[in-house]
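Exercise 7. Given the encoded structure of a 588-residue chain, write a plausible sequence.
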């Protein structure tokens, strides 16, 4: 990826350069339009003089009128053509920016998403990209067109009509430039505010839709609607404010041109009176002045598009330039599935007062299963996230097969790990496609095999369309336990050398959990497994059990070893006792 331009001007310049093949012909057509536009008043002036002198009549008059008509049609055709040419290029800019944004978002770690709200990020990909696109397309060519027309018209006024008249007529223009500068500053601030407000509104919509069931269950619809109305009003007010500032361009143009008209008619009349100017020349001059309306409007329009674009690019740039939380500098791929070694690991979440992990060390030989237990908030999930390199530890290192995790490419590392989070996500696709996420080419037999191992096959066959039933946001809603088992089937099908189960069976009953773990043991084929669980029965058969407490490794050993320490010395032994007791109470 090429360097990210900091300013909108640099971004647009770079884009125009790369798409010169679209911009140059469009600019050439605009130049032709400008020339024709300037030629028309000149021609009309000459015709007026011809008519006044009674030189122009009959066929010659018709011919001159036909030329005028041809020029008008020509301008129309060229205007259509340049817009078609340009829009192709400007849309390309939108596509490029959205791709860039998407790739960046996909590469960002949890830290990024923790600090930003989803709806706002979505607004960036729509509203803000649109604003930048308009600046790169419309604004650039309208700016070019306006400037060219302005230069041609003023030059013709001076050279073909009268320099003195032009100088006097242009007197009010510096005042207009000053007004434009002042307005554009406000447009920038107001646009930025409007984009931000829209982001907030978008965020509220996203959050409400995601949590609509909870809102309803808690009877919070009214409060949520009121909040929405408030944000919608704020977004509308902010847009209106931006519009209000933009609306000031037009009157400024009108005032300036009226003043110019008064001045030039005064001086022009005097000049005609003294025979220094023909009536036709004064007519042309008046028409030329009228033609300055477009460059002036263009200036106002370009300024507001540009300021909107600048505000949007500022927001987009902040996201695109945000450094990736995780470096992908490693070169080794694929992973070497050997012993998993954790050495002096320390990690704190941003802004946290106490570290989530502090000085954790252990070694797990390849192909073994480790049970990771401990009270809530002890750092179990955090440890898995560090293994996945979603976050980077502040101290210590993890090696796998003798290679530091950071030396693997991120892609290879993540392909080497199958991770089942506690609340897995199912995408809007069929159950079969959801299971085959990591291996889309897997056969139906392989998918079913994985589903059987995850003890979810029976459940799936009972769905309306079996394996082809759509699930996810737009499909059948599966229960928490079913979702977890589908996710386990997905992880088993991926067949990665390291399997991480993050309390992945919490919504499954004890017997089913037992069956799944039994299948896992039978099929493990040298796979290393880390099981985080609240239920100790899930880890009792593990080769080793690690107890984490407050980010420290407090116990390490097999089930039997830990129990042998007694309930006074071992958290594990104590918990085991409690859970056994609970289980026997349930059985009664
Ligand atoms: P466990 O999985 O053992 O229940 P976690 O690893 O989820 O514990 O959490 C360890 C500690 O880190 C807890 O104190 C928790 O509040 C904190 N924590 C977890 N995730 C985040 C996060 N994304 N940002 C800040 N703090 C977090």
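Solution.
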């Amino acid at each position: 990826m090429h360097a990210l331009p900091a300013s909108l001007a640099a971004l647009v310049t770079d884009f125009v350069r790369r798409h010169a093949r679209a911009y140059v012909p469009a600019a050439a057509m605009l130049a032709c339009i400008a020339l024709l536009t300037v030629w028309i008043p000149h021609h009309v002036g000459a015709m007026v003089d011809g008519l006044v002198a009674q030189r122009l009549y009959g066929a010659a008059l018709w011919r001159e009128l036909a030329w005028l008509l041809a020029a008008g049609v020509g301008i129309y055709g060229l205007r259509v053509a340049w817009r078609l040419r340009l829009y192709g290029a400007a849309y390309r800019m939108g596509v490029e920016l959205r791709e860039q944004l998407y790739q960046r978002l996909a590469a960002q770690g949890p830290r990024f998403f923790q600090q930003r709200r989803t709806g706002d990020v979505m607004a960036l990909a729509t509203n803000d990209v649109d604003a930048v696109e308009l600046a790169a397309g419309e604004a650039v060519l309208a700016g070019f067109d306006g400037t060219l027309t302005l230069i041609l018209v003023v030059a013709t006024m001076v050279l073909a009509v009268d320099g003195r008249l032009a100088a006097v007529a242009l007197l009010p223009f510096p005042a207009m430039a000053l007004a434009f500068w002042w307005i554009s500053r406000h447009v920038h601030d107001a646009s930025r505010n409007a984009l931000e407000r829209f982001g907030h509104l978008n965020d509220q919509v996203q959050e409400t839709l995601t949590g609509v069931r909870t809102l309803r269950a808690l009877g919070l619809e009214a409060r949520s609607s009121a909040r929405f109305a408030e944000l919608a009003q704020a977004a509308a007010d902010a847009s209106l404010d931006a519009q209000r500032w933009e609306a000031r361009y037009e009157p400024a143009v009108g005032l300036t041109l009226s003043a110019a008209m008064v001045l030039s008619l005064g001086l022009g009349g005097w000049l005609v009176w003294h025979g220094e100017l023909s009536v036709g020349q004064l007519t042309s001059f008046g028409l030329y002045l009228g033609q300055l309306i477009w460059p002036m409007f263009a200036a106002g329009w370009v300024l507001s598009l540009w300021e909107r674009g600048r505000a949007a690019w500022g927001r987009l740039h902040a996201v695109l330039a945000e450094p990736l939380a995780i470096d992908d500098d490693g070169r080794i791929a694929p992973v070497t599935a050997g012993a998993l070694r954790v050495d002096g690991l320390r990690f704190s979440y941003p802004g946290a007062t106490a570290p989530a992990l502090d000085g954790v060390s252990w070694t797990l030989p390849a192909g073994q299963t480790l049970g990771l237990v401990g009270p809530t908030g002890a750092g179990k999930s955090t440890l898995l996230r560090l293994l996945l390199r979603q976050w980077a530890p502040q101290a210590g290192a993890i090696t796998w097969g003798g290679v530091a995790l950071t030396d693997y490419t991120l892609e290879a590392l993540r392909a080497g790990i199958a991770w089942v989070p506690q609340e897995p996500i199912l995408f809007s696709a069929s159950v079969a496609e959801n299971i085959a996420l990591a291996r889309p080419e897997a056969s139906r037999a392989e998918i079913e095999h994985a589903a059987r191992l995850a003890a979810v096959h029976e459940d799936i066959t009972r769905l309306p369309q079996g394996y082809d039933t759509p699930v996810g946001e737009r499909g059948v809603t599966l229960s928490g336990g079913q979702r977890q088992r589908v996710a386990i089937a997905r992880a088993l099908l991926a067949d990665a050398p390291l399997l991480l189960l993050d309390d992945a069976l919490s919504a499954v009953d004890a017997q089913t959990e037992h069956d799944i773990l039994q299948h896992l043991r039978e099929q493990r084929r040298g796979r290393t497994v880390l099981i985080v669980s609240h239920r100790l029965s899930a880890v009792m058969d593990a080769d080793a059990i690690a107890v984490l407490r407050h980010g420290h490794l407090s116990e390490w050993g097999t089930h039997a070893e830990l129990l042998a320490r007694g309930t006074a010395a071992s958290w594990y032994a104590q918990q085991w006792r409690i859970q056994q007791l609970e289980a026997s109470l349930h059985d009664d």
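Remark. The chain has a mean pLDDT of 89. Students should compare their own answers with the one above.
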